[in-house]
Amino acid sequence: MGTVMLGTEVAKAMKERLIQRTEALKERGTEPKLAILRVGARPDDLSYERGAKKRMELTGIGCQVVELPEDVSQRELEESLKSLNRDSSVHGILVLRPLPRHLDEEPLTRIIDPVKDVDCMSPVNIAKIFSGDASGYAPCTPEAVMEMLDHYGIDPKGKKVTVIGRSMVVGKPLAMLLLGRHATVTICHTRTADLAATCRDAEILVAAAGKAKMVGASMAGEGAVVVDVGINMDPEGNLCGDVDFEAVEPKASFTSPVPRGVGSVTTSVLAQHVVRAAETLSGQKRV
Ligand SMILES: Nc1nc(=O)c2c([nH]1)NC[C@@H]1CN(c3ccc(C(=O)N[C@@H](CCC(=O)O)C(=O)O)cc3)C=[N+]21
C-alpha cells in the first residue's frame, strides 16, 4: 500500500507562503488581483472558475470575472482582453479555454500582456518554459504536478519519467519542466508503438491523455510514482482520471487520485502566479 498524494495537503502548504506574500504586497500598497475572462458558461469553465475564486479568497487575492456571451465577436473579445492589459489594478489574466468554435484563440495569445499571462497562453511564456527561463509562467496544471512531486519529496533528477499526452496545456510544458529538473523524459502519444511497455518502464508515470481510466495495472511498474492529470467524466457522469486508481494504487509507491489530486493544486499555482505578477508589476520583484 503506497502513499496517496492529496492536493489538499499541497495546497495547504502553499497557502501560508502565499498569504505572507500577499500581505507584503498590500503593506506596500498593491492589492493583487486576478481577472478571469470567460466566454459562455461551459460546465468545465464554471467548475474551474469556482475553485479559482475560492482559492483567491483564501489567499487574499482579488478576483474579477469578465463574462462575455457565447456569441461574442472576435473584435469584442480582443477589445476586452486589451482593456484588462491596460487595467493597472489587474495583475493576472486567465482566459478560460477552449473558446467557442467561432472564435480564434491565436490573436489572443499575442495580445495578452506576457507579464499578466498567468496560465501561459503567450508564445513569450511558452518560449521561456522551453528555454528554462524561470521568469516565465508555465500552464498551471503542469506546474501543479511539480509542486505535488516536491511536496512528497519525489526528486525527478535522473529518474525515468514517462508522460502520456503531448498537449500544449499539459504534456509538452510538463516535459520541459521535468527536463529542467534533470529527469529523463519520454513523451507518449497515440502513435507510440508499445505504450504499455514504455509506461511500465517509468519510475514516474504522468497520465495526461484525457482518456478515462486508460492506465491499468499492466501499465504501471512495481513501486512507480503515478500522477493522474486526467479530467474526464465516467459513464455515470462523475469526474474521473486517466488512471484506474483501484487497479494501479496497490502496485504504486505514490498515487494521485482524481478528484482530490493534481486538479485541486492547480488553483494554488494560479494564485502563486498572480502574486508573482503583482510583485513584478509593482516593482517589488522577489530576490
Ligand atoms: N486557460 C484555462 N486553464 C485551465 O486550467 C482550464 C481552463 N482554461 N478551462 C477549464 C479547465 C478545467 N480545469 C479544471 C482544473 C481543476 C479542476 C479541479 O479542481 N478538480 C477538482 C475536483 C473539482 C470538482 O469536484 O468539481 C479535483 O481534481 O480535485 C477542475 C477543472 C482547468 N481548466
Automatic annotation (TrEMBL):
Alphabetized UniProt keyword annotations: Amino-acid biosynthesis, Histidine biosynthesis, Hydrolase, Methionine biosynthesis, Multifunctional enzyme, NADP, One-carbon metabolism, Oxidoreductase, Purine biosynthesis
Record bears the keyword Hydrolase: yes
Pathway in which this enzyme or protein is active: One-carbon metabolism; tetrahydrofolate interconversion
EC number: 1.5.1.5, 3.5.4.9
Binding of NADP(+), residues: 165-167, 231
Domain Tetrahydrofolate dehydrogenase/cyclohydrolase NAD(P)-binding residues, every copy: 139-280
UniProt cross-references to Pfam families, sorted A to Z: THF_DHG_CYH, THF_DHG_CYH_C
Catalytic activity: (6R)-5,10-methenyltetrahydrofolate + H2O = (6R)-10-formyltetrahydrofolate + H(+); (6R)-5,10-methylene-5,6,7,8-tetrahydrofolate + NADP(+) = (6R)-5,10-methenyltetrahydrofolate + NADPH
Stored InterPro entries: Aminoacid_DH-like_N_sf (IPR046346), NAD(P)-bd_dom_sf (IPR036291), THF_DH/CycHdrlase (IPR000672), THF_DH/CycHdrlase_cat_dom (IPR020630), THF_DH/CycHdrlase_NAD-bd_dom (IPR020631)
Record domain Tetrahydrofolate dehydrogenase/cyclohydrolase catalytic: where: 6-119
Coiled-coil stretches noted in the UniProt entry, renumbered to this chain: none
Oligomeric form and interacting partners: Homodimer.
Job of this protein: Catalyzes the oxidation of 5,10-methylenetetrahydrofolate to 5,10-methenyltetrahydrofolate and then the hydrolysis of 5,10-methenyltetrahydrofolate to 10-formyltetrahydrofolate.
Record-stated family: Belongs to the tetrahydrofolate dehydrogenase/cyclohydrolase family.
Identification of the protein by name: Bifunctional protein FolD
Source lineage: Bacteria, Bacillati, Bacillota, Clostridia, Lachnospirales
